[in-house]
Structures are given as structure tokens and as C-alpha cells.
Amino acid sequence: MLLADNETTFDLLNNDAIAKTIVGLITEDPERAVTVGVHGDWGAGKSSVLEMIEASFADHDETLCIKFNAWRFQGLEDAKIALIEGVVTQLIEKRSLTTKAADAVKDVVKRIDWLKVARMGGGLAFTAMSGLPSPDHVGAVVGMVKGFFADPAKYADKEQINKVIEGAEGLLKEKESRRVPQEVEEFRKAFDELLNRAGLKQLVVLIDDLDRCLPEPAIETLEAMRLFVMMDRTAFVIAADEAMIEYSVRKHFPDLPDTTGPRDYARNYLEKLIQIPFRIPALGGVETHIYVTLLLVGARLGDEDAQFKALVAVAREALKRPWDPTGFDGAAVQAALGARAKDVADDLVLTEQIVPLLASGTSGNPRQIKRFLNSLLLRERTADARGFGAAVKLPVLAKLMLAERFIPTLFDEIGLASANDPDGRCKDLAVLEEGSKPETARAPAPLVAGGEGKKVVPPKAVAAPEPATVENPVLTQWQASDVIKAWAKLQPPLSNVDLRPYLFVTKDRKDYLAAASALGPLAAVVERLMGRRMAVSGMDAELRALAKPEASLVFDYVRRRILGAGDFSRPPAGIDGATILVRTQPHLQSALLDMLGTLPASSGPWIVAGWSEVITEDAERRRFQTLLERWSKATDNPALAASATAALRTRAKG
């Protein structure tokens, strides 16, 4: 059971209301030229709205609706020509005008040929500044073609070449060169005549995927719409993320003066071209609940199932009041599904479980919701295919994947802890899921090297003593996050679950199990980095020789040992080793700042100093500045606040 991720006329989002509104607007006055923008982020459902608009015109004899995908034609030829020729070609084909109006067709095609020859001639833009090619220019094109094909047998069929040359020479027999305003007017007349011959009162052109194009093709498509095709009896509906189009405008006009403001100009440019903008709103909580339910139930039962259709009808009624959850509650769903409710019971439970975090994490984007569900279902299917499907429960996998997708630092901690636990559990989750404050944390024992395929376990002889009371900064950070606490409340609880099968099925992102068993000789490196400054000062060359994945693995283990120390009033064991490791492996700077940001506000002033040679990248230096500002406001820790304030002053002077 996987969910198709493409545009559809089967409406699960109530976007049909937008489509009907647009159709009503563009048909209320067919003589009027109009442009409508359907805006929204990628995956919001813009293409599906266009599909619904196109379907609405299927039975309109006097209205022709044609579709043009700007992205598909990008790079094949000039975008302006592609749009003009695409519109004309579909009009001719769908109305059989080749036989019914051959002379009108010939007139329009001839004017398009002028534009093509201008492009062949080497870059005459179709703007009011440049004009169209002169006879001399066309002559140069003909000469170029003749010269290139001097040996027809070598390059192509001679008959075909002669047709190209004759076609270009035929343009020379026309009247003298026209400037753009005159040529555009002639094209409009010819195109209007073509609409008359086709018996059309209105032509509707749907332009899709414009925001996927590179800036130049995107602007050229808009210019073609404005200069050549937008005339009486034509309506354009453009589906695009307006932010991407504004970006294209700014890239197309990079030298705008500061007084104009490139962002303001881009907005004004777009508003001039698009008269009526519609923005598809993000899904709210109730809408996300309805959407996920329909996706999962529809995939299980099929779109043609009678009970599923009844559920869709209930959903559409509920969507009329999207702020009210009672219209699509459990009772309404059960009543619509009837006897089939038992067949989708697991899907309904899964929906209740994941929707709260999925709605906020995806910001109500339908494509992101669908991609999450597909990834979830695909991993479940993969576990079945690998033979351990019985060990993977969908609710547990879904909860873990919500952390993986929306709280990656939490998932990383869970993965590392579970991979190194003899029972595959993350015991810290018990405190988090029970909602109590962290009590006593056991400091991680030193690692020992194991052979290939062996689990790294702490030897009994060197087991660390259990401290009386220490602060666990990981748990403290978890409990300070509303998002993590909301995730912890989701069912089912995970603290007593062996998570190793789930780590295996999610290892396409990071293989925690392999890291735990393959630390091998690197365990000795970890132990040395946990020593005093003098012991680690000579490790630079050895650490530089580590591959990036090895260095990241070593840092993960050192970081967990540091955070497990509990007492941060003075530099904990391992901090000197972490410093040297990051200095020799600069890609770890972000991970180091993540660790520093995790340390409690009760930490000593040592966390402020000593990082100038380690934190060198601009982005990370800005992050460290933010940490200093936070520490300078530590009212319960005057020593830390004073040190951070002094450091800020020094940085300001430097």
C-alpha cells in the first residue's frame, strides 16, 4: 500500500472549491482577457487545482482549455517560442483546423517562423528594444544553413536541408522588416482569426510548474504570455509558488538600483502580470486529520469502494467547518465505514497517533504529509521482505520516524543509546515519557574495542561508579522542549521497547547498529581522547587521518561521555580531546556547538573560553555568538554571565 504522489482530479483537500471559483471568474466575461495565479508552496496541490479546472471545461464546446507545462519544455528551445507554439499547436490539433482553416493556420505559423528565424540568427530577443530580424539578418541565417550543410551527404538528407533553406528564404519574400509593435499586432490579428475559425468564445491556457524552471525560462514564459498571447477571449491560469517567481525576477534584473528595491520590483512585476491571485492555504489540524484518514483508508479499500466514498462525503461536509473537529470524529468515521471499519482499524489508530505532530511538523503541506506516510509504509514493507516484519510494529515505527523527521537531534540520541544498550533500549525515555524530572544518571562506562561483528560493552572491571546525584543535560534539554514533550506523549511508549529492529529499518539515514559494533580500534581513540590535555596534545596527526565518518563516530561517543559526567562546574573529562578532534576535523564544528548548547546554565565559566582556534566557520561563529549572549543573561550563575559578557566585549572590539 503506497500513495501516489501526483496531481489528481480526485479531491481529498477540498481544493475543488478553489477550482470552481476560478472557473466562475474566467467564464463570467469570456471577452475579457484575464490572468489568474494559483499560488502555494511546492506540494500544496496547485497542479491538482489545474487538473480540476481542466476537467470542468471538458464539456464546454465554445471554450477550449489547453495545458502547458513550462518545466517540461525548459531547455528544449526558447521558452517564448515554446509557449506560443504550444498554444497554437494544441489549438490547431484539438479543433482540427489544419483542414477547416488552412489559410488562417498558415498565417499564424508564418509569424511564428519569423520568431524562430530570429532565434536561429543568434540571439535577437523578442522585446521592444531589439525588434524582429531584418532581411539581411534572415539572409545571414540562410547563408549559415547553406554553409554548414555544404556536404549534404555528410550531415543529413539533402531534401530535408533544402526545405529548411527554402523556408528561411521564403521569409525574405515577405514585406520589409517590421518592428515588434507591428509584428505583435499582426500576430494578434492572425490568432484572433484562428479563434473565430475554431468557433471559440474563449481560450483558457493553464501553465503549470513555472516555479520549477530556471529564472530565464520562467521570465521568458511570462513575457510571451504578456506580449504575444494575452488578448481578448484568452484566460491564463498560472500555477506557481510566487516566492520562486519573485526570485526569478530578481535574478533576471540583477542591477536594479537600491532606490527601486529588487524585492519590491519583483512583487510589482508579478502583480502586473497576475490580476487575480489565489493562494492555497496550508492544512490545519482538523484538515490534516481528515486528509491522513482519507489517504490511509483510501489506499487500503480503494477509491471505488462504496464505504470509502461514503467516508469522503462525510469528510467534505466536515471540511465546510474546518475549525470544528466533531464533524469527523470517531463516531462519524465508524458510521460511514460500517462493516469495513474493522478492515482499517489499524489505519485509524495510526492516524490518531501521528496527526498532532505531523500537522505542525509539515506546516500542513499535503506533499510532505504524503511523503512521510509513503516512507513509513515502505519501511514496514521492507522489514517484511527482510524477514523481521513481526519485530516491527507500525505505531512504534511511526513514532520513531516522527522524531527522525522533525526532531533529528532527539532521534540521534535515541539511536545512539539504543544501539549501545544490551537490550536495545533507550532508558532515558522512561523519564521523558512519564513526564517526571530526571533523577540520577549513570555516567557512561569506558568503551573497549571489540572484534568485527561484536558488540562494544563496558567491561565489568572498569565500570564507573554510580554518582549520588548528577544532572543529565540530555534529559534536561529534552524536558525543556515543548515539541519533544509533545512527541513523548504520543502512543505507544518506547522506553521498554527493543529498538534495534527499528534502527535497522531506518539505517538508510544513519547506521547506528553498525557504528556500535564497528567502533573496533576507534574505541582506543575514544579512550585516549577522554584523557588529560597533555595526553591528547600529540594526537593531531592521528586525528587528521580519520575519515569524516570515523571522526563523526568518535565525536558521538566522546560527546556522550562528556554529557554523562553530570558535574559541569569545571571542565569534564574528554573536553580537551573533543576540542582537538574538532580542530583537526572542522566539519564537526556544528556538532560541537550542539553539545555546548546542551550544557546546563549551571556550568562553570570554562565553557566560554578556548574556542577561537576551533570555531572558525562564519555560520558557527554566529551560533557561538548567540550562545554567549544567552550565557551572559544567566542570572543564577554570575560567574558564567560575567565571563560571557567579557567575551562579547572582546569580540566586539575585534
TrEMBL record:
Residue ranges annotated for the KAP NTPase domain, each copy included: 16-382
Q: Which Pfam families match?
A: KAP_NTPase
Source organism superkingdom: Bacteria
Q: Which residues form a coiled coil?
A: none
InterPro entries, per the entry: KAP_P-loop (IPR011646), NTPase_KAP_P-loop (IPR052754), P-loop_NTPase (IPR027417), QatA (IPR049673)
- What is the protein name stated in its UniProt record? ATPase
Which organism does this sequence originate in?
Novacetimonas hansenii
Lineage, opening ranks: Bacteria, Pseudomonadati, Pseudomonadota, Alphaproteobacteria, Acetobacterales
